[in-house]
Amino acid sequence: MDMRNIAIIAHVDHGKTTLVDELLKQSGAFRANQAVAERAMDSNDLERERGITIFAKPTSVEYKNTRINIVDTPGHADFGGEVERILSMVDGVVLLVDAAEGPMPQTKFVTAKALALGLRPIVVLNKVDKPDAEPDRALDECFDLFSNLEADEDQLDFPHLYASGRNGWCDAELDGPRNSLDALFNLIVNHVPAPKQIKHKNEDFRMLATTLGADAFVGRVLTGRVESGSVKVGATLQALSRIGQKIEQFRVTKIQAFRGLQMQDIEAAEAGDIVSLAGMTKATVADTLCALAVDEPIEAQPIDPPTITVTFGINDSPLAGRDGKKVQSRVIRDRLMKEAETNVAIKIADTPGGEAFEVSGRGELQMGVLIENMRREGFELSISRPQVIMREIDGKRMEPVEEATIDVDDEYSGVVIEKLTSTRKGELVEMKPAGAGKTRIVAHVPSRGLIGYHGEFLTDTRGTGVLNRVFHGWTEHKGSIPGRRSGVLISMESGDAVAYALWNLEDRGKMMIGAQTKVYQGMIIGEHSRENDLEVNPLKGKKLTNVRASGTDEAVRLTTPITLSLEEAIAYINDDELVEVTPNAVRLRKRHLDPHERKRAARSA
After folding, report:
1. Residues β-bridged to residue 239
2. CB-based contacts of 262: which residues, under 8 Å, 6+ apart?
């Protein structure tokens, strides 16, 4: 059977996973009566809840005696570590672009990686049946994007198709029959080259491990594309590190291949196949699995370095240990080390005290997903404000810069540009009308300036703006950038918050808690209307007397409190504050509590 290996690239919410669903259905991967969930490739709970792809996942379909291995890639740059590994397994890419929005920053990030590897793209203009679709403009922007990314002539001469992934059709012409995805299947078979590894099927076995998984029965499982030779169940292989050092020798206990959404056991794998092997105990991502006669490892793609670091510590608040069961630093460290083993974009380092760990990664979203997974597993943590990682280049202190692409209503463009350029030290690159009364702004802004900006941005644009960001490069340090302007309201007592007290405190600022919420001394319960922090008493009840007076029986009506998501809370805090994360709560607090005060607060709470 012929074989094609492709990856699908798209910006967040451009319809990539939905299109893969339709490819699976129309290729016969599902039975006619099989119940299949929407966005079947988003198998993780967080992926389904947030509507984004976090983990790269392969699948395969059969079309006219050709097996097409498809890799669904994450659309967000924070998960770029997944993308950089996975693109080395494919021979072509399908770039999916929203016909209304055109290529967006995350598209640019992944496409640059694909073009640098010499992969030839197929452009699919999706959602062309939407009222605001402009496929011709989107196509021109794709060509400009490839040109800016220094694509060669073959890559610039790309074929394109018009599609509606949700409705399951794809055609070479905009006014085509709109019946099926056959045009896309045929283009993949005819345009994407067969795996060049097939030529090396008589050589010694070699495979570069690109993703790491675990199975309760067979243990560690490594996935990758067979570069040369073949392997059978029971064969003895070795694992080589990136520098050629022998890690271990092992026996292959199981070989699995992707068939639709299922993994199927197979007896042998040949050059060009994307398969998973089991049997090893130490080998990991970027290692070469090969025959015993091989002594040269396969060159692994370099991974972009982390840009931010967050400190993970134990939860030492008075309410610690009430929700989660995994609270010791040893257990937290083991979990983080396990994460670093499977996610090459994350680096873990111990702090001098040993009770906290510095976790470095790509962005706030990546950190937020890791923390969310840990809290669902029963961990309790305290999280610091993200800090940008600086570099020393040619004797100069350099900091990371991100390209921010913003779509806002015309009336709000002024305040957004002012905040990005004057307050947050950004540089305006491009500003143009985006249609329907909107303006598209492109700016290069230091990563420090974008930490905590999203909430302020939504306030400035009345919730109508859309902000996308992607790592751009490094620039000389731009000096101090102001953080959050407003102060916070800090509880000076411990116990259950009283509605009457919160009602009286509403003149001081916006509340972050409701009545009967457990609070403790040092916990942040609201945002002050002024720039300074203020200690307040949320437990102060109403004084009762036997004298009746007008206004005595006034009803207490509380304003709905601000509810911060995990990522918003991490971005909101200042350097002297922490986010307390438990399975059931996300709280903010000041960093230090006096030990005696902590004991007293614990007894009160």
Report:
1. 248, 289
2. none
8 A C-beta contact, residue 417 and residue 428: yes
Residue 187 in tokens = 């283009």
Q: How buried is residue 304: exposed, middle or buried, by Cβ count under 10 Å (0-12/13-18/19+)? A: middle
**384 and 347 within one domain:** yes
Most confident of 1-5, 55-59, 413-417: 413-417
Instruction: Measure the N-to-C terminal CA separation of the chain; round to a whole number of Å.
Output: 67
- DSSP type of residue 176: S
CB 404 within 8 A of CB 420: yes
Domain count, the chain: 5
Alpha-helix residue ranges (DSSP H) falling in 205-348: 329-342
Instruction: Give the whole-angstrom CA distance, residue 39 versus residue 15.
Output: 10
- Residue 438: beta bridge partners? 409, 435
Residue 569 maps to a domain: no
Q: Residue positions in the annotated binding site for GTP?
A: 13-18, 126-129
Nearest 5°: phi and psi at 462? 55, 35
Is residue 174 domain-resident?
Answer: yes
Q: Is residue 321 within 8 Å of 585, Cβ to Cβ?
A: no
Angle at 61 between CA 58 and CA 64, to 5 degrees: 150
Q: What is the CATH number of the domain that holds 257?
A: 2.40.30.10
Last residue of a domain, one of 175, 194, 213: 194
User: In whole angstroms, what is the distance from residue 450 CA to residue 472 CA?
Assistant: 13
Q: Which residues pair with 433 in a beta bridge?
A: 439
Dihedral of alpha carbons 512, 514, 517, 520, sign: positive
For the CA atoms of 422, 426, 431, 437, the dihedral, rounded to the nearest 10 degrees, stands at: -70
Task: Answer yes or no: is 12 within a domain.
Answer: yes
Q: Do residues 118 and 153 lie in contact, with contact meaning Cβ atoms separated by under 8 Å?
A: no
Residue pair 301/209 in contact by the 8 Å Cβ criterion: no
Q: How far is CA 272 from the centre of its chain?
A: 29
**Same domain (yes/no): 467, 397:** yes
Domain assignment of residue 379, given as a range? 309-388
Alpha helices in 11-55 (DSSP H): 16-26, 45-50
Residue 39, pLDDT > 50, answer no
Kindly report the average pLDDT of the chain as a whole number.
Answer: 82
Segments in 27-163 forming alpha helices (H)? 45-50, 80-86, 105-116, 135-148, 153-156
Q: What distance in Å separates the CA atoms of residue 123 and residue 200, rounded to the nearest whole number?
A: 30
Annotated binding site: 13-18, 126-129
In terms of phi and psi (left: phi > 0; alpha: psi -120 to 50; beta: otherwise), the region of 479 is left
How many CB atoms neighbour CB 217 within 10 A?
Answer: 7
DSSP 266: -
Cα 264 to its chain centre, rounded Å, is: 29
| Confidence check: pLDDT of 76 > 80 | no
pLDDT at 33: 47
- For residue range 493-527, list pLDDT tens digits in order: 899 999 989 998 988 989 999 888 999 998 999 99
CA distances from 53 to 13, 45, 174, 282, 396 (A): 9, 11, 28, 28, 37
Q: Which tokens is 217 given?
A: 């029965």
Please give the residue that has the higher pLDDT: either 305 or 22. 22
Residue 217 lies in a domain: yes
CATH number at residue 319: 3.30.70.870
Q: Please give the pLDDT value at position 84.
A: 63
The pLDDT, as a whole number, for residue 597 is: 46
Whose CA is closest to 384, among 95, 146, 588, 555?
A: 588
